[in-house]
Amino acid sequence: MQGAYTAIVPIKAWARSKTRLHPDRAVREALARAFAEDVLRATALCASVGAIVVVSSEPGVGPLADEVGATVMPEPVDGLPDPLNAAVLHGAAWAGEQGDDGPIVVVPADLPALTPESLADALELALPWRGAFCADTAGSGTTLLMASSARQLRPAYGDDSARRHTALGAAALDGVDPRVRRDVDRLDDLRAAAVLGVGPATLALSSPRLGG
Question: Is residue 189 over pLDDT 60?
């Protein structure tokens, strides 16, 4: 990893992830792990990314992070009213403490179709802006969130986050690859991601029982 960006990858504990994705908890956990594995590999192979910090309290994240040379930080204390944005800010604080004032990107761990090239293209588009984001496929949510430095990062993930990020001054990036917009919460989302092409860990779980 030699690029300019620091990537923050928040990863929710797999047992608490993707509750709308599949009725079988074991299947949900396996998919959440596969998504995270594919996202971390794509991010690590992106020429624009120089460092990755994973914010998670999931014990299984460690080996995946080690594979790609990522730093792991535990999530902030449980029970916070806004755990995802707190995790993002925790990662941004780590980036600031490293003394690197370069650009930063939040890469959610539920983008199984993400590729190094699609990520690099989005990061290139974001460079002129102090803050920028990629809306999800529906247009109301947010996948990637970029800022010119850790100090400029203003996460507002959650319901209607695209509108809230716009209100905070972030530019909505047009013309980005659909693979950076395709997050997965339901089986229909996973089928749509599969049409775009998913990473090897997710692909390995494709079967009739998953709708793959």
Answer: yes
